[in-house]
C-alpha cells in the first residue's frame, strides 16, 4: 500500500486518476418536474430533466481533487438564488432516479409521454412518483404505464406528511431544496385513515384506511386495462397472461429534506389551498421559464406561495 505522504510526489496524471476513482457512484435521486403548475396538456415541462446532488466528498479535500470532481460528467453546477451560489446537479438517470409529478401536472404528463420524441425516455423509466390526489382518475396512470412507461418498476403515491389522518384531496408543494422520497412502512400505513375519498358509498362517509385505498387503486388500474383492452408492448409492469400489473411495486412515500444533520419531512408545512383558496402555486409562463441546467428553477416557485388564485 502506498503511504499517503508519497501521494504528492506521484505524477499529476496519476493523482488525478486516483481522485477520479474515488468518486462515489451516483445515488438515486428524485427529479421534480417543472414548472409545478402546468395548466393544460400542451403546457409541457421544461427540459432537460435533472436532479440535485450532494457535493462529492473529494471536492472538500483540496483544490486538485475538487477540479477532478467538477470535471466529471456526473457533476455539473447551476446557480441557486436561494443559496446565493452554484450548487451541484447531474442529468436525470431513468435507471435509478424517480420522476415526480404533482396534481397540476398529470394532464401534461399523459400528453408528454404520448409524444413520439419522448418514447425512449418513457420506456427507460423505472420509477415514477405522483402526488396522491393525482391518482384520480386511475385510468390515467394505467394507460400511461401500459402504453408508454412499460418497464416501470415502482409507482409511488406521495403524502405531504405521515399522520394518523389525511385528506385524499390535500395538495402540497414539493420541497424547495435537495430532497428524497422515503418509504412509509406498511405498519404505519395500516394506522393512517384517508378522508375525502371520492366514489365511496355514503355509509363509508368518504373515509378509508390508507392500505385499503392502496389495494383498491391497484385494482382500479388492473380493471381499466382489462375492460378497455388498452394496447401496448409487453413490459415488466404489466403481465399479459395474468392481466394485472404484477411487475409493478406500489408504494406510499413522503418527501424528506436534509435539515440539521438528518432527513425530515417538510411538506406538512407546504400544503396548498383547496377550491381556489390561498395559498396556490405560481403559474410561470413559457417566456419566463429559465434553463434548468443553468438556474435552479425550483427556487422560483417552490419556496414561495402565491396569495391569490392561479393566473
Automatic annotation (TrEMBL):
Q: Which InterPro entries does this entry report, sorted A to Z?
A: 2EXR
Q: Where is the 2EXR domain?
A: 4-99
Q: Name one Pfam family in it.
A: 2EXR
This chain's protein is named 2EXR domain-containing protein
Q: Which organism is it from?
A: Stachybotrys elegans
Q: What is the lineage of its organism?
A: Eukaryota, Fungi, Dikarya, Ascomycota, Pezizomycotina
